[in-house]
């Protein structure tokens, strides 16, 4: 019997051998309690440990569990995108594998969905067991991003959320490559609400988001939703131009009135270095946008699937992409 899938739980995995069994156990217990049909879609994002072997064993025992296996590491956002592309449910829940997002909160999200909300995002009321640096940078980033864009992005939310099939289809239709999924969910609109939860400590293992990946995600967030950094660099140019004119006039007037020249080599050097830095910084900001335009123009896919388990070729988009 193949009854309609109501819930798809999308779980990205990158070197999560220490947590994936427990994640499966907790998710299964929560989803079984709904008494409705569901699937759990694990996306292996090029793990180098035993993650795939463990998920393969789970898939063999439980056909509700599906695996999408990437050809290499394409990144968290690409993994979520693949999960959404392949999900068959009427409601799709994206959740991290490390149990920082408690699976039990999914039941509250489902309740809100049944009340008619099309996006239910998890809002982190408190973060347990994370470093001061992580908490501070995350808090600062969400606020900077909010101030830079006209899209109403809720602060302190990650990718842990439930979205309706309609929203999922709207997101799938967006072709952009450097995806900042949580921002795109806000961008598409629909009726949105939140449930608050306490973000837990990682169940086991270490973060798979080193500083480099965090910066890339932050830049994707800002560049995909706002061109304010370009506007700001234009303003900076204007301000320094005006400052230059004023100081030039000061030098000329001083020469005319007092007949003295103000020549301070260290000052000239210092101003030059500062201006050079400013110019390079503005070029760098442009580079961020140009690089992303370059990525779009190549038209490469967001991810490549090596193989899958428990997906039949008749399943929706997979049939098309095969
Ligand atoms: N992840 C992924 N690809 C990556 C990095 C992370 O699929 O390149 C997954 C990871 O396995 C986890 C989720 O993305 O399920 C969030 O990663 P993590 O918990 O390490 O991030 P943090 O909570 O520390 O920001
Ligand atoms: Mg985590």
TrEMBL record:
Matches recorded under InterPro entries: Glyco_trans_2-like, Glycosyltransferase_2, Nucleotide-diphossugar_trans
Q: Which parts form a coiled-coil structure per UniProt? A: none
Q: Name one Pfam family in it.
A: Glycos_transf_2
The lineage's top-level taxon is Bacteria
Question: Mainly localized where?
Answer: membrane
Transmembrane regions: 235-257, 263-290
User: What GO terms are given for molecular function?
Assistant: glycosyltransferase activity
Q: Where in the cell is it found?
A: Cell membrane
Q: Which UniProt keywords apply?
A: Cell membrane, Glycosyltransferase, Membrane, Transferase, Transmembrane, Transmembrane helix
Gene Ontology cellular-component terms for this entry are:
plasma membrane
The Glycosyltransferase 2-like domain, residue ranges: 8-170
What membrane topology term does the record carry?
Multi-pass membrane protein
Cited PANTHER family: PROPHAGE BACTOPRENOL GLUCOSYL TRANSFERASE HOMOLOG, UNDECAPRENYL-PHOSPHATE 4-DEOXY-4-FORMAMIDO-L-ARABINOSE TRANSFERASE-RELATED
Family the UniProt entry places it in: Belongs to the glycosyltransferase 2 family. GtrB subfamily.
What this protein is called in its record is Glycosyltransferase family 2 protein
Instruction: Tell me the organism.
Output: Clostridium muellerianum
């Amino acid at each position: 019997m193949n009854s309609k899938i109501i819930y798809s739980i999308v779980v990205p995995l990158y070197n999560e051998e220490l947590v994936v069994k427990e994640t499966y156990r907790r998710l299964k217990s929560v989803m079984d309690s709904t008494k409705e049909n569901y699937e759990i879609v694990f996306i292996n994002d090029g793990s180098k440990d035993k993650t795939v072997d463990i998920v393969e064993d789970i898939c063999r025992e439980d056909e509700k569990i599906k695996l999408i296996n990437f050809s290499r590491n394409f990144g968290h956002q690409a993994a979520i995108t693949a999960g959404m592309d392949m999900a068959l449910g009427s409601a799709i829940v994206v959740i991290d594998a490390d149990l920082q997002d408690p699976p039990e909160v999914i039941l509250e999200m489902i309740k809100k969905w049944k009340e008619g909300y099309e996006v239910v995002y998890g809002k982190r009321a408190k973060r347990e067991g994370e470093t001061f640096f992580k908490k501070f940078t995350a808090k600062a980033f969400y606020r900077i991003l909010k101030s830079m864009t006209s899209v109403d992005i809720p602060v302190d939310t990650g990718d842990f959320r439930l979205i309706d099939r309609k929203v999922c289809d709207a997101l799938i239709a967006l072709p952009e490559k450097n995806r900042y999924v949580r921002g795109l969910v806000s961008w598409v609109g629909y009726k949105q609400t939140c449930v608050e939860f306490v973000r837990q400590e990682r169940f086991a293992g270490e973060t798979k988001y080193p500083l480099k990946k965090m910066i890339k995600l932050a830049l994707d967030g800002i560049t995909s939703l706002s061109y304010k950094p370009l506007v700001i660099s234009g303003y900076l140019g204007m301000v320094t131009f005006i400052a230059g004119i004023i100081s030039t006039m000061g030098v000329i007037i001083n020469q005319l009135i007092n007949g003295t020249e103000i020549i301070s080599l260290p000052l000239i050097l210092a101003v030059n270095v500062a201006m050079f830095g400013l110019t390079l910084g503005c070029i760098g900001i442009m580079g961020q946008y140009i690089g992303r335009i370059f990525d779009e123009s190549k038209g490469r896919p967001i991810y490549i699937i090596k193989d899958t388990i428990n997906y039949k070729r008749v399943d929706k988009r997979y049939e098309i992409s095969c």
